[in-house]
């Protein structure tokens, strides 16, 4: 074999595929969610609206993940071929020499064999798998964003009741006590 070098075979196309898919996913998800999902803070109080937002973010996440997977599918095809195929040549002495083709050669050879369609072989399965992960990633990101936004609010303070507790109203996130004047009963 080739020794430890075989562990790095196909690294370039793998990075292009993964970094490209992640960049496409996050750019498209953030833009679409900004456009399609309203950010009304009063909706947080309505459980139906929160559930609808979770379903919508799951749909947006699935669509963006599937599109990113399809857009980067050629890199996946090249990576797979680089990892599985070897070019065998003979040297001057007649010995067989195994050589791994480079990215551009694999891309050209794949295109020459079957045309553009060959670069999207297996794209449907990869898009379905990515869409399934996007179904989870969308709502998870929205939930993590809620937690991050919540951490910027003031922390809860200890509730200290005065002499007459009926005159004190304390919001769970307020840092000051508020008093209500009760007029003539």
- Write down the overall geometry: elongated
Beta-strand percentage range = 5-15%
Rg, nearest Å: 28 Å
Largest sheet: 2 strands, antiparallel
Oligomer: single chain
Distance between the termini: 93 Å
Order of strands across the main sheet? 1-2
Uncertain residue ranges: none
Q: Please report the total strand number as a whole number.
A: 4
Q: Summarize the amount of helix as a percent range.
A: 55-70%
Structural class: mainly alpha
SSE pattern: HHHEEHHEE
Mean pLDDT: 80
By DSSP (H or I, 4+ residues per run), the number of helices equals 5
Walk me through this protein's architecture:
By secondary structure, the protein is mostly helical. It contains 5 helices and 4 strands, in the order H-H-H-E-E-H-H-E-E. It has helices at 11-36, 47-71, 73-84, 103-114, 123-150; strands spanning 87-90, 96-99, 168-169, 178-179. The strands form 2 sheets. Strands 1-2 form a two-stranded antiparallel ribbon. It has a two-stranded antiparallel ribbon with strand order 3-4. Strand 3 (168-169) and strand 4 form a beta hairpin. The chain is elongated, with a radius of gyration of 28 Å. The relative contact order is 0.12.
Concise synopsis of the structure shown:
The chain has helices at residues 11-36, 47-71, 73-84, 103-114, 123-150, and strands at 87-90, 96-99, 168-169, 178-179. With 185 residues, it is mainly alpha-helical.
Layout of secondary structure:
Layout: H1 11-36, H2 47-71, H3 73-84, E1 87-90, E2 96-99, H4 103-114, H5 123-150, E3 168-169, E4 178-179
Antiparallel strand pairs: 1-2, 3-4
Helix pairs in contact: 1-2, 1-3, 2-5, 3-4
């Amino acid at each position: 074999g080739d020794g430890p070098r075989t562990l790095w075979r196909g690294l370039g196309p793998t990075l292009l595929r993964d970094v490209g898919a992640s960049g496409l996913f996050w750019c498209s998800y953030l833009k679409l969610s900004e456009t399609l999902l309203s950010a009304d803070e009063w909706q947080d109080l309505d459980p139906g609206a929160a559930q609808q937002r979770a379903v919508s973010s799951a749909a947006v996440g699935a669509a963006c993940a599937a599109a990113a997977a399809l857009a980067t599918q050629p890199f996946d095809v090249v990576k797979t071929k680089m990892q599985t195929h070897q070019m065998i040549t003979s040297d001057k002495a007649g010995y067989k020499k195994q050589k791994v083709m480079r990215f551009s050669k694999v891309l050209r050879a794949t295109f020459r064999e079957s045309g553009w369609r060959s670069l999207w072989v297996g794209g449907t399965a990869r898009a379905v798998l990515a869409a399934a992960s996007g179904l989870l990633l969308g709502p998870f990101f929205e939930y993590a964003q809620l937690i991050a936004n919540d951490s910027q609010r003031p922390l809860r303070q200890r509730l200290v009741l005065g002499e007459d507790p009926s005159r004190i109203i304390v919001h769970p996130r307020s840092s000051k006590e508020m008093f209500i004047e009760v007029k003539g009963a």
